[in-house]
Amino acid sequence: MAMINVWRPGGPARLLAADAARAVVLFVLSVVAASVDPHRRTFQVGWPTVLVAAIGCAALMWRRRHPLGVLAVTTGCGVIFQLLGVRDSPLVSSPVLVSVYTVAVRTDRRTAWTAAAVSAAVLVAATTSTTGSWLEPDTLAMLAWTALPVAVGEGVRSRRAYVMAVEERAEHAERTREQEAQQRVAAERVRIARELHDIVAHHIALINAQAGVAVHLVDQRPEQILTALEDIRDTSRSALDELRVTVGLLRQSDDPVAPRAPMPGLAQVPALLASFERAGLSVSHTRRGDAGPLDPAVDLAAFRIVQESLTNVRKHAGADHARLSLHYRRERLTITVEDDGSAGPRRPHPGAGHGLIGMRERAAAIGGRLHAGPRPEGGFTVTAELPLRPGRSRPGPARDQRDGHDDSRTACR
Questions:
Q1: Which burial class, exposed, middle or buried, applies to 117 when counting CB atoms under 10 A from its CB (0-12, 13-18, 19+)?
Q2: Are 86 and 49 in contact (CB under 8 A)?
C-alpha cells in the first residue's frame, strides 16, 4: 500500500509545534471525558486512564511520518479504554479519529477505508466483550464516528491533489509559453537572416558585375565609365535602403526612427530586371493569368525567389540571357526562371549552397514548394509554386527528382 505524498504548508518546526499543541488539547479532553461518569454524576481521574490517554495522544506526534503505525497504537489505546470500563465517547476516541483522518489524507482511498474498517471492528469487538451486544447505541455511534474522519480526509486529499494538478498545469503552460516564445524568436532570426542573405547576395553580385563592366570600359569605351559607376552607386544605394528596412524590423518600439519603406514585391520586378539588364543579363519576362493583389508574405517570397534565381544565373551560370515566367492560376502562382547555360568560357563561381536552401525555406514557410535542377538540354531551371493565400492551398513539400541530381551547378547555388 503505497503512501501518497501531498503538499502541505509550513515548515517542519511549525508542523511539529502544531502537532504538539493538538496532542495536549486531545490529552486533556480524553482524560476529562474518561473521568466523567454521567450516571453517577461524579468525576474521578485514574492513573491508568491518564497513562493510556498520554500514550495515545503522544503517538499523534508521529502521525505524518507513520500514519498506519500511529493508527494501530491509538486503536490499541481505545481497546484498553474499553477493557478499563471507560465510557465510550468521541472525545475518548479522539486520538483514533485523528489517526483515521491522517491515514485518509496521506494514503489512497482503499487503504484508508480498509484501515478505518479494521480499527472500527477492533473497537466494536472490544466493546462487545464488555457489554455482550454490538447493537448498543454507543457501538453504532462508534461506527459512524469512525467513518466520518475517513470521508473528511478523502475530501481534503482530493482537494490537495486538485490544487497540485492545477499548479502543475500552470507551470507546464508557463514553460510551454516560454518555449514557444523562444521558437518564435529563433524563427524570426532565421527569416531576417534569410532576408539579409538575399539582399546582400543579389546586390553584391550586381555590383561585382557592374564593376567588371566598368573595368572593361576603361580601355574600350572610357566615355561610358561614368554610366557604369552611376549604376554601381544606384545598386549600392538600393542595397543600403533594403538593409535599412530589414534591420529596422529589429528596432524596439521606443527607438526614435522606425522604418517606413514598404517591403519589396512583384511590383518591383521591372526595376529588378532593369538592374540585371545594366549588369549584362538580359531577361525575357512573360506573365499569364490575372495578376490580382497578393498576400504580403506571398508577394515578398515571390520577389525574393525571382531575385535569388536571377542572381544565381548571373553569378554562377555566367549566362547572358534568362527567361522569367509568372503564371497566375486560381489558387496558386507558378514562377519559372530558366537559363541556357554559360554563353562563354566563364567558369561558375563556387558557393555555399545557401541560395537554393533559402528559396525552398521561403516557399515552404507559406505552404508552397520549389523545384530546382539542371535542364536536359542544358542550363538550369527553378520552378516555385506558391499559394495565393497562405493556408488555403498548401501543397506538400515535395521536391522534383532532379533536386537529387549530382550537378556541380546545383551545389554552387
A1: middle
A2: yes
CA dist 386 and 366 (Å) reads 7
| CATH class (in words) of the domain with range 262-413 | alpha beta
Is 163:6 a contact under the CB 8 Å cutoff?
no
Q: How many CB atoms lie within 10 A of CB 103?
A: 27
Beta-carbon count within 10 A of 55 CB: 16
Residue 360 has pLDDT above 90, yes or no: no
φ, ψ for residue 374 (rounded to 5)?
-70, 150
Residue whose C-alpha is closest to residue 107's, from 145, 165, 156: 156
Task: Please state, in angstroms and as integers, the Cα–Cα distance from residue 323 to each residue in 62, 247, 278, 309, following that order.
Answer: 87, 32, 16, 11
Backbone angles phi, psi at 386, to 5 degrees: -120, 140
230: cell is 552611376
Buried b (16+ CB within 10 A) or exposed e, 336-354: bbbbbbbeeeeebeebeeb
**Winning range, highest mean pLDDT, from 83-92, 93-102, 220-229, 258-267:** 93-102
Closest by CA position to 163, among listed 19, 7, 308: 7
Distance set, CA 382 to CA 54, 369, 396 (Å): 91, 11, 17
Cell 529563433: give the residue: 186
Residues 355, 361, 366, 367: what is their CA dihedral angle, to the nearest 10 degrees? Answer: 120
- Annotated domain spans of the chain: 12-174, 262-413
Query: pLDDT at position 353, please?
Result: 53
Per residue in 18-63, pLDDT (tens digit) is 878 888 888 888 888 777 765 566 666 778 888 888 888 888 888 8
Vertex 269 angle, CA 268 and 270, to 5°: 95
How many C-beta atoms lie closer than 10 Å to residue 244's C-beta?
A: 12
